[in-house]
Amino acid sequence: KAGYFTYDPGYVSTGACESKITFIDGEKGQLLYRGYPIEQLAEQSNFEEVAYLLLNGELPSKEEFENFVAKINNHTMVHQQMMNFFNGFRRDAHPMAIMVSVVGALSAFYHDSLDINNPEHRDISALRLIAKVPTIAAMCYRYSVGHPFVYPDNDMSLAENFLNMMFSMPTNDWKPDPVLVKAMDRIFILHADHEQNASTSTVRLAGSSGANPFAAIASGIACLWGPAHGGANEACLNMLREIGDVSRIPEFIERAKDKNDPFRLMGFGHRVYKNFDPRAKVMRESAHEVLDLLGKHDDPIFKIALELEKIALEDPYFIEKKLYPNVDFYSGVILDAMGIPTNMFTVIFALARTVGWVSQWHEMIGEDDRRIGRPRQLYTGATERDYVDLNKR
Ligand code: SDX
Q: Which residues of 218-248 are buried (b: 16+ CB within 10 A; e: fewer)?
């Protein structure tokens, strides 16, 4: 049925589900949100409008957009007692560890939106998650550096608000640069949804049991953290730093080909894309803009990224394996140039992907004949046998 893992009785689960939200053509390198090309949305839309589109299926009218933003703004703050969770963590806790915990803890505060059978609960919990996750994400950073939490300012967009909650100080009137706000908004749009990736499938499976949406989204955050998935942006920047100089790129390319070496080129390859990830192309252009604005066009990390991409795309192994840069390859370069610490990269990915997770959860839960997901297996273990007493083994 739509939205669930379907399987033919007696066969291994196809793991496939139906959805109207996002379409990917891996061979063409095509990505559509509700039919709209990601390139056009990244260039012409904004994160709030994309959130509305993913959730509701159509681009909003001016009035619909304003109402949607007003509803989000009602929920950007978090319960004051949630501040206490942060104090339980060490200051050097990975922000993703805090995100998993605090987002899951939302289910302990919003009892009036936990009943997934109540359409009003479903709608308000979707808005609460879209509105509160950016605030919690910024709080994770502020806590890690010992700075006071900054309250959301509802005169700002989600992207501007996030940067403001990350970097503004009570001691000065710093405000985010509009070009950086646009770059962050574009990063949010590019990461918002991506069909049935590992973390979205996790959210669907968790939600299919009837677990409340806050817990389901927390399970998605946990899955996204892995370096093979959303953690790749952090791993990619660490890899570029480890390479350190363009002269060492061939060494790492050879390691990536060596089956006996667990090293993989972070930010390269994709289960679905066997062509350029369209998000990587937009991200590369955005990186040029941001680095030029910040006067960092000679950024050594960016130079290594550009040269690594060039060499890898000409390498017969990568050509044969159809390995191309993915969304995580350039995002870290931009975030690093913007002064975002590396351990916050996946938090930003989770912030943006919350919109997709919520939309996919909402689509699934809204099905009138929804069923619990139940992936099947191909059993390859022992055939039936009798128990053997310990003294006879
Ligand atoms: C995301 O699913 C999504 O949509 C995810 C995502 C989203 O928006 O939600 O797009 C976000 O997770 C992007 C991917 C981020 N991860 C990385 O950049 C980590 C590095 N990439 C690899 O770990 C890998 O490419 C994966 C995990 C992304 C995909 O792994 P697969 O499915 O095993 O890749 P594949 O089947 O296409 O691999 C084909 C071959 C394999 O070798 P053989 O078994 O054929 O000999 O290419 C090899 C792989 O070992 N390979 C790589 C490689 N990626 C695949 N070799 C070196 N470096 C790499 N990066």
A: bbbbbbbbebebbbbbbbbbebbeebeeeee
Judge contact between 194 and 200, C-beta under 8 A: yes
Query: Which residue shows structure tokens 């273990």?
Result: 381
Please check whether residue 158 is in contact with residue 117, taking contact to mean a CB–CB distance below 8 angstroms.
Answer: no
d(CA 306, CA 304): 6
For residue range 19-38, list pLDDT tens digits in order.
Answer: 999 999 999 999 999 999 99
Question: Of the residues 185, 270, 336, 362, which is catalytic?
Answer: 270
Closest residue to atom 23 of ligand 1, CA basis: 228
Q: What are the b/e assignments for 345-357, b being 16+ CB within 10 Å?
A: bbbbbbbbbbbbb
Percentage with pLDDT > 90 across the chain: 87
Cα separation, 153 vs 76, whole angstroms? 9
- Ramachandran sector of residue 386 (left: φ over 0; alpha: ψ -120 to 50; beta: rest): beta
Does ligand 1 lie within 6 Å of residue 229's CB atom? yes
Alpha-carbon distance 387 to 201, whole Å? 38
**ipTM reported for the complex, 2 dp:** 0.95
Distance CA 319, CA 316 (A): 5
